[in-house]
């Protein structure tokens, strides 16, 4: 992922794929033109990289020149095309091939046709490396297209976002979800996860997704997924990961404008961690960190026994049950700690001390992400 000015872009088309597309275009044009010596005209600025690579691959003699037009402002095409440098030579009777980096709305191409209206060229051929069919709203024929791409803003290989990105040898696509901070929050029973999640969600404007709450909500409201989940539970079976993931997906989609999410109670297995990564990737986003509250067993036991005195929760009253729950937590999460540590995303935070101090420690981790 890269950041240009205020926006994030993800890798989209590799150098190798671009090279192949340019080669194919060059081969096709050379084959069609035979011994006709073409004048290739690049449309500046965007096409400089394409033209350079293209003419090096072109197997026969040719001429090369440029015209300079400008249309884009930021990430939006504008109707108003400025002619900054026009034709500087007589092209009558010549075969002209326009080399465009990208054709989007077709406004620039319309201006190109206007420029050639009275030039009496033998033929005017249009070649573009990238083409966005969903955005194109003109009727001009495109004779050669390197690659059709979806209607999303791209940068690299000559294309810029407000001046940046032209130098990149590969192409990046604008992320539809801009930068989010997504955390997986972990902690043994009694670590204070719930309390801290509440502070973090306020402070960073994150959406707290507790898998337990999501399950209860879906079952109580008898959503399709809730009914499905319950059918497994009624048979005493584990709810398949995919059902849980689908529920989480719905939660994420309900909060598309969020700054990020705190996942609580999920993932619990390696497969779930992978599924969560995939879910975030599909949303053009990612898990940034697994934050685990680290609290010594003896402190946990003391805290939970204390809580048991007032909460009335039976599993908070018995020391050996408490110790078992803590042990189970470490057995189950060790593999997840590895999973995120391998991606340099594991952050252990000392969870002993007063609540504010712990929040400060957690914030220090999140602020650095
Ligand atoms: P059109 O006039 O809308 O067809 O757009 C053509 C020009 O807009 C191109 O020559 C580029 O300069 C610019 N452009 C179109 N789409 C993109 C994009 O996705 N990224 C960067 N520039 C673009
Ligand atoms: Mg251009």
Q: C-alpha Rg, in Å?
A: 29 Å
Task: Assign a percent range to the helix content.
Answer: 40-55%
CATH level-3 fold name of the largest domain: Rossmann fold
Amino- and carboxy-terminal Cα gap:
14 Å
Instruction: Tell me the major beta sheet.
Output: 6 strands, mixed
SSE pattern, N- to C-terminal: EEHEHEEEHEEEEEHEHHHEHEHHEH
Hey, roughly how much beta strand do the residues contain?
15-25%
Please give the CATH architecture of the largest domain: 3-Layer(aba) Sandwich
Question: What is the CATH C-level name of the largest domain?
Answer: Alpha Beta
In DSSP terms (H or I, runs of 4 or more residues), the helix count works out at 11
Strand order in the sheet with the most strands:
5-4-3-6-7-8
**Secondary-structure class:** alpha/beta
Average residue-wise pLDDT = 93
Short description:
The chain has 11 helices and 15 strands. By secondary structure, it is α/β, with parallel strands linked by helices. It folds into 2 domains: 2-174, Rossmann fold (3-Layer(aba) Sandwich), CATH 3.40.50; 181-368, P-loop containing nucleotide triphosphate hydrolases (Rossmann fold, 3-Layer(aba) Sandwich).
What does this structure look like?
The chain has helices at 15-33, 48-57, 107-116, 193-204, 211-220, 224-234, 241-254, 270-282, 297-311, 319-342, 355-368, and strands at 2-4, 7-13, 39-44, 63-73, 76-85, 95-103, 123-131, 144-148, 154-155, 171-174, 183-186, 207-210, 261-264, 289-294, 346-350. It is α/β, with parallel strands linked by helices and 369 residues long. It has two domains: 2-174, Rossmann fold (3-Layer(aba) Sandwich); 181-368, Rossmann fold (3-Layer(aba) Sandwich). The strands form three sheets. The protein has a six-stranded mixed β-sheet with strand order 5-4-3-6-7-8, with helices on both faces. Strands 12-13-11-14-15 form a five-stranded parallel β-sheet, sandwiched between helices. Strand 1 (2-4) and strand 2 (7-13) form a beta hairpin. Helix 5 (211-220) packs across helix 7 (241-254), helix 6 runs antiparallel to helix 7 and helix 9 (297-311) crosses helix 10 (319-342). The longest helix has 24 residues, at 319-342. It is elongated, with a radius of gyration of 29 Å. The chain starts with a strand and ends with a helix. The structure holds inosinic acid (IMP) and magnesium ion.
């Amino acid at each position: 992922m890269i950041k240009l000015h205020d926006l994030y872009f993800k890798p989209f088309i590799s150098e190798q794929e671009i090279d192949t597309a340019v080669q194919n275009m060059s081969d096709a044009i050379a084959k069609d033109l035979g011994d006709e010596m073409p004048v290739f005209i690049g449309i500046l600025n965007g096409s400089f990289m394409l033209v350079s690579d293209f003419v090096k691959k072109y197997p026969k003699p040719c001429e090369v020149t440029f015209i300079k037009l400008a249309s884009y402002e930021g990430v939006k095409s504008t109707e108003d095309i400025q002619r900054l440098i026009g034709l500087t030579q007589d092209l009558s009777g010549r075969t002209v091939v326009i080399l465009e980096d990208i054709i989007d709305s077709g406004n620039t191409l319309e201006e190109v046709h206007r420029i050639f209206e009275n030039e009496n060229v033998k033929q005017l051929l249009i070649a573009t490396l990238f083409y966005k069919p969903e955005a194109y709203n003109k009727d001009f024929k495109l004779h050669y297209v390197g690659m059709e791409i979806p209607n999303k803003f791209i940068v690299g290989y000559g294309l810029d976002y407000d001046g940046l990105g032209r130098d990149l040898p590969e192409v990046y696509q604008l992320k539809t979800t801009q930068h989010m901070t997504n955390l997986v929050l972990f902690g043994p029973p009694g670590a204070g996860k719930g309390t801290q999640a509440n502070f973090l969600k306020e402070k960073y404007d994150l959406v707290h997704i507790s898998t337990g709450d999501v399950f209860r909500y879906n079952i109580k409201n008898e959503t399709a997924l809730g009914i499905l989940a319950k059918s497994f539970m009624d048979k005493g079976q584990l709810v398949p990961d995919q059902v849980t993931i689908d529920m989480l997906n719905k939660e994420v989609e309900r909060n598309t404008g969020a700054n990020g999410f705190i996942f609580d109670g999920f993932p619990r297995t390696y497969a779930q961690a992978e599924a969560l990564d995939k879910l975030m990737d599909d949303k053009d986003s990612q898990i940034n960190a697994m934050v685990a509250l680290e609290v010594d067993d003896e402190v946990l036991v003391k805290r939970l026994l204390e809580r048991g005195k007032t909460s009335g929760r039976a599993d908070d009253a018995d020391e050996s049950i408490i110790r078992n729950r803590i042990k189970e937590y470490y057995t189950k999460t060790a593999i997840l700690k590895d999973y995120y540590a391998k991606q340099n995303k594991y952050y252990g935070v000392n969870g002993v001390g007063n609540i504010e101090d712990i929040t400060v420690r957690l914030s220090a981790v999140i602020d650095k992400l």
